[in-house]
Amino acid sequence: MYIKRTISDQVKYFASKFPVVAVVGPRQSGKTTLITHIFKDKPYVSLENPDNRLMALEDPRAFLNKFPEGCIIDEIHKAPELFSYMQEIVDFSNQDGKFIITGSQNFLMFENISQTLAGRVAILKLYPFSFKELNDNISPFLNNFYDYIYYGGYPRIFNKNLKPNEWLPFYIETYIEKDVRSLKKINDLYKFQIFIKSCAGRIGQVLNLSSLANDCGITHTTAREWLNILEASFILFTVKPFYKNFNKRIIKMPKIYFYDTGLVCNLLGLTNVGDLKNHYLKGNLFENFIISDFLKLINNLNLNKEIYYWRDSVGHEIDMLIDSVEGIKVFEIKSSMTINKSFFKNINYLKKINNDIPIFPFIIYGSDDNYIYNEMQVLSWKNLDKALNQTNKTRKIRG
Question: How far is Cα 64 from Cα 66, in angstroms, rounded to an integer?
Protein backbone atom coordinates (compact mmCIF):
# COMPACT_ATOMS: atom_id res chain seq x y z
CA MET A 1 0.00 0.00 0.00
CA TYR A 2 1.43 3.35 -1.07
CA ILE A 3 0.53 6.31 1.10
CA LYS A 4 1.00 9.63 -0.65
CA ARG A 5 3.34 11.86 1.28
CA THR A 6 2.42 15.50 1.71
CA ILE A 7 5.87 16.55 0.57
CA SER A 8 5.47 14.84 -2.83
CA ASP A 9 4.39 18.02 -4.62
CA GLN A 10 7.42 19.87 -3.22
CA VAL A 11 9.75 17.15 -4.50
CA LYS A 12 8.23 17.34 -7.99
CA TYR A 13 8.37 21.13 -8.02
CA PHE A 14 12.02 21.39 -7.03
CA ALA A 15 12.99 18.63 -9.47
CA SER A 16 11.77 20.99 -12.20
CA LYS A 17 13.94 23.84 -10.89
CA PHE A 18 17.20 22.26 -9.66
CA PRO A 19 19.57 19.74 -11.25
CA VAL A 20 19.86 17.83 -7.97
CA VAL A 21 17.17 17.14 -5.38
CA ALA A 22 18.22 15.66 -2.05
CA VAL A 23 15.66 13.94 0.16
CA VAL A 24 17.07 13.43 3.64
CA GLY A 25 15.59 12.04 6.82
CA PRO A 26 15.77 9.19 9.30
CA ARG A 27 16.24 5.62 8.17
CA GLN A 28 12.99 3.87 7.29
CA SER A 29 11.04 7.12 6.96
CA GLY A 30 10.00 6.22 3.41
CA LYS A 31 12.57 8.11 1.32
CA THR A 32 13.17 5.29 -1.17
CA THR A 33 9.46 4.54 -1.56
CA LEU A 34 8.73 8.22 -2.14
CA ILE A 35 11.32 8.94 -4.80
CA THR A 36 10.95 5.66 -6.71
CA HIS A 37 7.20 6.28 -6.86
CA ILE A 38 7.60 9.86 -8.10
CA PHE A 39 10.46 9.16 -10.53
CA LYS A 40 9.40 5.79 -11.92
CA ASP A 41 11.42 6.21 -15.13
CA LYS A 42 14.74 6.99 -13.48
CA PRO A 43 17.32 4.24 -12.91
CA TYR A 44 17.70 3.42 -9.24
CA VAL A 45 20.92 2.50 -7.48
CA SER A 46 21.46 1.97 -3.76
CA LEU A 47 24.81 2.44 -2.10
CA GLU A 48 23.70 0.05 0.62
CA ASN A 49 24.64 -2.56 -1.99
CA PRO A 50 28.35 -3.36 -1.44
CA ASP A 51 29.10 -3.76 -5.17
CA ASN A 52 27.53 -0.41 -6.05
CA ARG A 53 29.27 1.27 -3.16
CA LEU A 54 32.66 -0.19 -4.12
CA MET A 55 32.38 1.06 -7.70
CA ALA A 56 31.21 4.50 -6.53
CA LEU A 57 34.19 4.76 -4.20
CA GLU A 58 36.85 3.37 -6.55
CA ASP A 59 35.76 5.05 -9.79
CA PRO A 60 33.12 7.71 -9.15
CA ARG A 61 33.34 9.15 -12.67
CA ALA A 62 32.67 5.79 -14.31
CA PHE A 63 29.88 5.12 -11.86
CA LEU A 64 28.03 8.32 -12.76
CA ASN A 65 28.72 7.94 -16.50
CA LYS A 66 26.63 4.76 -16.43
CA PHE A 67 23.60 7.04 -16.09
CA PRO A 68 23.83 9.71 -18.82
CA GLU A 69 20.24 10.84 -18.21
CA GLY A 70 20.70 10.87 -14.45
CA CYS A 71 19.46 8.50 -11.76
CA ILE A 72 18.30 8.00 -8.19
CA ILE A 73 21.16 7.41 -5.78
CA ASP A 74 20.06 6.06 -2.41
CA GLU A 75 22.19 6.64 0.71
CA ILE A 76 24.70 8.78 -1.18
CA HIS A 77 26.54 9.76 1.98
CA LYS A 78 28.20 6.33 1.82
CA ALA A 79 30.23 7.55 -1.17
CA PRO A 80 30.94 11.25 -0.64
CA GLU A 81 33.44 11.21 -3.52
CA LEU A 82 30.47 11.31 -5.89
CA PHE A 83 29.55 14.89 -5.01
CA SER A 84 32.48 16.57 -6.78
CA TYR A 85 31.96 14.60 -9.98
CA MET A 86 28.24 15.24 -9.82
CA GLN A 87 28.91 18.98 -9.72
CA GLU A 88 30.90 18.76 -12.94
CA ILE A 89 28.14 16.77 -14.67
CA VAL A 90 25.21 19.00 -13.70
CA ASP A 91 27.11 22.17 -14.58
CA PHE A 92 27.77 20.81 -18.05
CA SER A 93 24.37 19.22 -18.74
CA ASN A 94 22.12 22.04 -17.49
CA GLN A 95 19.37 19.45 -16.88
CA ASP A 96 16.93 19.93 -14.01
CA GLY A 97 16.02 16.89 -11.94
CA LYS A 98 19.03 14.95 -13.24
CA PHE A 99 20.01 13.38 -9.93
CA ILE A 100 17.69 12.51 -7.06
CA ILE A 101 19.69 11.59 -3.99
CA THR A 102 18.85 10.44 -0.47
CA GLY A 103 20.68 10.23 2.82
CA SER A 104 20.00 9.47 6.44
CA GLN A 105 22.94 11.25 8.03
CA ASN A 106 22.33 14.94 8.28
CA PHE A 107 25.68 16.59 8.79
CA LEU A 108 27.55 14.29 6.37
CA MET A 109 25.09 15.25 3.65
CA PHE A 110 25.19 18.97 4.36
CA GLU A 111 28.96 19.04 4.72
CA ASN A 112 29.44 17.59 1.24
CA ILE A 113 26.61 19.56 -0.33
CA SER A 114 27.90 22.87 1.02
CA GLN A 115 31.34 22.15 -0.40
CA THR A 116 30.33 21.02 -3.89
CA LEU A 117 26.64 21.43 -4.74
CA ALA A 118 25.71 24.73 -3.13
CA GLY A 119 23.19 26.52 -5.33
CA ARG A 120 22.64 23.41 -7.44
CA VAL A 121 20.61 21.29 -5.03
CA ALA A 122 17.25 21.53 -3.29
CA ILE A 123 17.21 19.81 0.09
CA LEU A 124 13.95 18.36 1.37
CA LYS A 125 13.41 16.48 4.62
CA LEU A 126 11.16 13.45 4.92
CA TYR A 127 10.15 12.50 8.44
CA PRO A 128 7.98 9.59 9.63
CA PHE A 129 4.26 9.91 8.82
CA SER A 130 2.52 13.02 10.11
CA PHE A 131 -0.91 12.90 11.73
CA LYS A 132 -2.51 14.12 8.49
CA GLU A 133 -0.82 11.46 6.39
CA LEU A 134 -1.98 8.72 8.73
CA ASN A 135 -5.42 10.18 9.30
CA ASP A 136 -6.08 10.48 5.57
CA ASN A 137 -5.12 6.85 4.93
CA ILE A 138 -5.28 4.69 8.06
CA SER A 139 -7.83 6.45 10.28
CA PRO A 140 -9.93 3.33 11.04
CA PHE A 141 -6.85 1.75 12.59
CA LEU A 142 -6.18 4.65 14.98
CA ASN A 143 -8.87 6.02 17.25
CA ASN A 144 -7.40 8.79 19.41
CA PHE A 145 -4.21 10.71 20.10
CA TYR A 146 -2.94 7.99 22.43
CA ASP A 147 -2.82 5.62 19.45
CA TYR A 148 -0.94 8.12 17.32
CA ILE A 149 1.56 8.76 20.09
CA TYR A 150 2.11 5.07 20.83
CA TYR A 151 2.38 3.86 17.23
CA GLY A 152 4.40 6.80 15.94
CA GLY A 153 4.78 7.23 12.21
CA TYR A 154 7.39 4.86 10.79
CA PRO A 155 5.87 3.46 7.57
CA ARG A 156 6.85 -0.19 8.02
CA ILE A 157 4.72 -0.52 11.14
CA PHE A 158 1.64 0.30 9.09
CA ASN A 159 2.65 -1.31 5.80
CA LYS A 160 3.28 -4.64 7.53
CA ASN A 161 0.56 -4.28 10.18
CA LEU A 162 3.10 -4.60 12.98
CA LYS A 163 2.82 -3.66 16.62
CA PRO A 164 5.38 -1.01 17.61
CA ASN A 165 7.16 -3.34 20.01
CA GLU A 166 7.51 -5.90 17.20
CA TRP A 167 9.63 -3.56 15.08
CA LEU A 168 11.00 -0.55 16.97
CA PRO A 169 13.47 -2.49 19.18
CA PHE A 170 15.10 -3.88 16.03
CA TYR A 171 15.12 -0.41 14.49
CA ILE A 172 16.92 0.94 17.53
CA GLU A 173 19.40 -1.93 17.56
CA THR A 174 20.22 -2.14 13.86
CA TYR A 175 19.77 1.33 12.44
CA ILE A 176 20.62 3.72 15.25
CA GLU A 177 23.64 1.72 16.31
CA LYS A 178 24.71 1.32 12.67
CA ASP A 179 24.61 5.06 12.13
CA VAL A 180 26.33 5.67 15.44
CA ARG A 181 29.25 3.45 14.47
CA SER A 182 29.68 5.19 11.11
CA LEU A 183 29.33 8.73 12.46
CA LYS A 184 31.73 8.43 15.36
CA LYS A 185 33.60 5.61 17.00
CA ILE A 186 31.87 4.90 20.30
CA ASN A 187 33.53 2.26 22.46
CA ASP A 188 30.71 1.78 24.94
CA LEU A 189 27.48 1.18 23.04
CA TYR A 190 25.78 0.08 26.25
CA LYS A 191 26.25 3.57 27.70
CA PHE A 192 25.05 5.03 24.43
CA GLN A 193 21.84 2.99 24.74
CA ILE A 194 21.41 4.37 28.26
CA PHE A 195 22.00 7.84 26.86
CA ILE A 196 19.24 7.45 24.25
CA LYS A 197 16.81 6.24 26.90
CA SER A 198 17.79 9.10 29.20
CA CYS A 199 17.05 11.57 26.38
CA ALA A 200 13.66 9.92 25.91
CA GLY A 201 12.96 10.47 29.61
CA ARG A 202 13.68 14.18 29.19
CA ILE A 203 11.37 15.07 26.30
CA GLY A 204 9.80 18.47 26.69
CA GLN A 205 12.35 19.45 29.31
CA VAL A 206 15.06 22.10 29.22
CA LEU A 207 18.35 20.45 28.31
CA ASN A 208 20.73 20.01 31.23
CA LEU A 209 23.83 18.41 29.77
CA SER A 210 25.57 18.03 33.13
CA SER A 211 22.63 16.12 34.62
CA LEU A 212 22.30 14.00 31.48
CA ALA A 213 26.02 13.19 31.52
CA ASN A 214 26.01 12.29 35.22
CA ASP A 215 23.05 9.95 34.81
CA CYS A 216 24.86 8.09 32.03
CA GLY A 217 28.33 8.06 33.58
CA ILE A 218 29.92 10.11 30.80
CA THR A 219 31.55 13.50 30.51
CA HIS A 220 29.77 16.73 29.63
CA THR A 221 31.71 16.83 26.32
CA THR A 222 30.71 13.27 25.45
CA ALA A 223 27.07 14.04 26.19
CA ARG A 224 27.22 16.96 23.76
CA GLU A 225 28.85 14.80 21.07
CA TRP A 226 26.29 12.01 21.49
CA LEU A 227 23.43 14.49 21.36
CA ASN A 228 24.84 15.79 18.08
CA ILE A 229 24.91 12.23 16.73
CA LEU A 230 21.24 11.71 17.56
CA GLU A 231 20.39 15.00 15.87
CA ALA A 232 22.50 14.12 12.82
CA SER A 233 20.70 10.76 12.56
CA PHE A 234 17.28 12.48 12.64
CA ILE A 235 16.35 10.77 15.91
CA LEU A 236 15.79 13.86 18.03
CA PHE A 237 15.75 17.62 17.64
CA THR A 238 16.05 20.58 19.96
CA VAL A 239 13.78 23.62 20.19
CA LYS A 240 15.53 26.89 20.95
CA PRO A 241 14.21 29.51 23.37
CA PHE A 242 12.57 32.64 22.00
CA TYR A 243 14.14 35.67 23.60
CA LYS A 244 13.42 38.64 21.34
CA ASN A 245 11.30 41.51 22.62
CA PHE A 246 10.46 40.03 26.01
CA ASN A 247 12.25 40.50 29.31
CA LYS A 248 15.80 39.17 29.45
CA ARG A 249 15.45 36.95 32.53
CA ILE A 250 14.88 33.87 30.44
CA ILE A 251 16.13 30.32 30.17
CA LYS A 252 18.52 30.06 27.22
CA MET A 253 19.05 26.29 26.88
CA PRO A 254 17.03 24.33 24.30
CA LYS A 255 14.46 21.62 24.92
CA ILE A 256 14.68 18.01 23.70
CA TYR A 257 12.08 16.35 21.48
CA PHE A 258 12.03 13.24 19.28
CA TYR A 259 10.83 13.17 15.69
CA ASP A 260 8.78 10.05 16.44
CA THR A 261 6.79 9.51 19.64
CA GLY A 262 6.44 5.78 18.97
CA LEU A 263 10.20 5.52 19.28
CA VAL A 264 10.08 7.42 22.59
CA CYS A 265 7.37 5.11 23.94
CA ASN A 266 9.50 2.10 23.08
CA LEU A 267 12.59 3.59 24.71
CA LEU A 268 10.51 4.29 27.82
CA GLY A 269 9.45 0.63 27.95
CA LEU A 270 5.76 1.19 27.19
CA THR A 271 4.22 -2.01 25.83
CA ASN A 272 0.68 -0.87 25.05
CA VAL A 273 -1.56 2.19 24.88
CA GLY A 274 -2.73 1.55 28.44
CA ASP A 275 0.82 2.02 29.70
CA LEU A 276 0.91 5.37 27.94
CA LYS A 277 -2.35 6.60 29.47
CA ASN A 278 -0.99 5.96 32.96
CA HIS A 279 2.58 7.12 32.40
CA TYR A 280 3.94 10.12 34.29
CA LEU A 281 5.27 11.56 31.00
CA LYS A 282 1.88 11.40 29.27
CA GLY A 283 1.68 15.21 29.07
CA ASN A 284 5.24 15.47 27.76
CA LEU A 285 4.53 12.83 25.14
CA PHE A 286 1.44 14.71 23.99
CA GLU A 287 3.50 17.90 23.79
CA ASN A 288 6.19 16.06 21.79
CA PHE A 289 3.51 14.67 19.47
CA ILE A 290 2.06 18.13 18.78
CA ILE A 291 5.39 19.91 18.35
CA SER A 292 6.89 17.23 16.10
CA ASP A 293 3.70 17.24 14.01
CA PHE A 294 3.92 21.03 13.67
CA LEU A 295 7.51 20.57 12.53
CA LYS A 296 6.42 18.00 9.93
CA LEU A 297 3.56 20.21 8.76
CA ILE A 298 5.82 23.24 8.34
CA ASN A 299 8.44 21.13 6.57
CA ASN A 300 6.03 19.29 4.26
CA LEU A 301 4.49 22.56 3.06
CA ASN A 302 7.91 24.23 2.73
CA LEU A 303 6.92 27.06 5.06
CA ASN A 304 9.69 29.33 6.25
CA LYS A 305 8.87 29.20 9.95
CA GLU A 306 10.83 28.38 13.09
CA ILE A 307 9.51 26.75 16.26
CA TYR A 308 10.57 28.10 19.65
CA TYR A 309 9.61 27.89 23.31
CA TRP A 310 9.75 30.57 26.00
CA ARG A 311 10.49 30.31 29.71
CA ASP A 312 11.68 32.87 32.22
CA SER A 313 13.77 32.37 35.33
CA VAL A 314 10.77 32.35 37.68
CA GLY A 315 8.88 29.59 35.89
CA HIS A 316 6.54 31.28 33.41
CA GLU A 317 6.58 29.13 30.29
CA ILE A 318 5.01 28.91 26.83
CA ASP A 319 5.22 25.49 25.20
CA MET A 320 5.63 26.71 21.63
CA LEU A 321 5.98 29.95 19.67
CA ILE A 322 5.97 30.46 15.91
CA ASP A 323 7.22 33.79 14.60
CA SER A 324 5.22 35.01 11.61
CA VAL A 325 4.72 38.17 9.57
CA GLU A 326 1.48 38.92 11.45
CA GLY A 327 3.11 38.59 14.84
CA ILE A 328 3.91 35.78 17.25
CA LYS A 329 1.66 32.76 17.52
CA VAL A 330 1.93 31.27 21.01
CA PHE A 331 0.70 27.85 22.03
CA GLU A 332 -0.08 26.09 25.26
CA ILE A 333 -0.29 22.33 24.69
CA LYS A 334 -2.45 20.27 27.06
CA SER A 335 -3.46 16.62 26.77
CA SER A 336 -6.62 17.28 28.82
CA MET A 337 -9.96 16.89 27.01
CA THR A 338 -11.47 19.78 28.99
CA ILE A 339 -10.30 23.38 29.15
CA ASN A 340 -9.13 24.74 32.49
CA LYS A 341 -8.64 28.45 33.26
CA SER A 342 -5.11 27.69 34.42
CA PHE A 343 -4.19 26.91 30.80
CA PHE A 344 -4.36 30.63 30.00
CA LYS A 345 -2.19 31.88 32.85
CA ASN A 346 1.18 31.93 31.11
CA ILE A 347 -0.19 33.32 27.87
CA ASN A 348 -1.84 36.16 29.77
CA TYR A 349 1.44 36.86 31.52
CA LEU A 350 3.29 36.98 28.21
CA LYS A 351 0.72 39.37 26.80
CA LYS A 352 1.22 41.57 29.85
CA ILE A 353 4.99 41.93 29.40
CA ASN A 354 4.84 42.07 25.61
CA ASN A 355 6.33 45.15 23.95
CA ASP A 356 3.63 45.89 21.38
CA ILE A 357 4.18 42.79 19.22
CA PRO A 358 0.91 41.25 17.99
CA ILE A 359 0.35 37.97 19.83
CA PHE A 360 -2.06 35.32 18.59
CA PRO A 361 -2.72 32.83 21.39
CA PHE A 362 -3.77 29.22 20.90
CA ILE A 363 -4.59 26.34 23.20
CA ILE A 364 -4.01 22.88 21.66
CA TYR A 365 -5.82 20.22 23.67
CA GLY A 366 -6.98 16.61 23.59
CA SER A 367 -10.59 16.98 22.46
CA ASP A 368 -12.30 17.42 19.07
CA ASP A 369 -13.92 20.86 19.41
CA ASN A 370 -12.57 24.18 18.12
CA TYR A 371 -13.76 27.53 19.47
CA ILE A 372 -12.76 30.89 20.93
CA TYR A 373 -12.54 31.18 24.72
CA ASN A 374 -11.45 34.37 26.48
CA GLU A 375 -10.08 35.77 23.21
CA MET A 376 -7.93 32.71 22.64
CA GLN A 377 -8.30 30.15 19.87
CA VAL A 378 -8.88 26.68 21.31
CA LEU A 379 -7.97 24.02 18.77
CA SER A 380 -8.31 20.27 18.72
CA TRP A 381 -5.12 18.24 18.33
CA LYS A 382 -6.61 17.15 14.98
CA ASN A 383 -6.59 20.68 13.53
CA LEU A 384 -3.04 21.92 13.80
CA ASP A 385 -3.06 23.16 10.20
CA LYS A 386 -5.62 25.81 11.19
CA ALA A 387 -3.12 27.40 13.55
CA LEU A 388 -0.76 28.12 10.66
CA ASN A 389 -3.43 29.78 8.53
CA GLN A 390 -5.55 31.87 10.88
CA THR A 391 -5.48 34.25 13.83
CA ASN A 392 -7.77 34.35 16.81
CA LYS A 393 -9.94 37.01 15.14
CA THR A 394 -11.75 34.70 12.74
CA ARG A 395 -14.42 33.37 15.10
CA LYS A 396 -16.89 34.87 17.53
CA ILE A 397 -15.47 35.16 21.04
CA ARG A 398 -17.14 33.09 23.72
CA GLY A 399 -16.12 33.02 27.35
Answer: 5
Q: Is residue 130 part of a domain?
A: no
Domain boundary among 125, 158, 182: 125
pLDDT tens figures, 351-372: 888 777 888 999 999 999 999 9
Task: Judge contact between 104 and 233, C-beta under 8 A.
Answer: yes
CA angle 165, 5, 73 (to 5 degrees): 90
Q: Do the strands 371-373 and 397-398 form a parallel or antiparallel pair, or are they unpaired?
A: parallel
Return the closest-CA partner of residue 308 out of 300, 352, 298.
298
Q: Render pLDDT for 194-207 as a digit per residue (tens, 0 to 9).
A: 999 999 999 999 99
Q: Sort strands 371-373 and 99-103 into parallel, antiparallel or unpaired.
A: unpaired
Are 275 and 206 members of one domain?
yes
Nearest to 38 by CA among 14, 18, 68: 14
- Phi/psi for 309 (5° steps) reads -130, 170
| pTM passes above 0.70 | yes
- Regarding whether 339 and 388 lie in a shared domain, the answer is yes
β-strand partners of 5: none
Looking at the structure of the chain, the number of domains it has is 3
Long-range contacts of 163-169 (CB under 8 A, 24+ apart): 164/262, 164/265, 164/266, 165/266, 165/271, 168/262, 168/263, 168/266, 169/266
CA distance 225 to 195: 11
Same-domain pairing of 173 and 258: yes
83 and 144 assigned to the same domain: no
**What CATH number does the domain containing 180 carry?**
1.10.10
Q: Can you give the residue range of the structural domain that contains 73?
A: 8-125
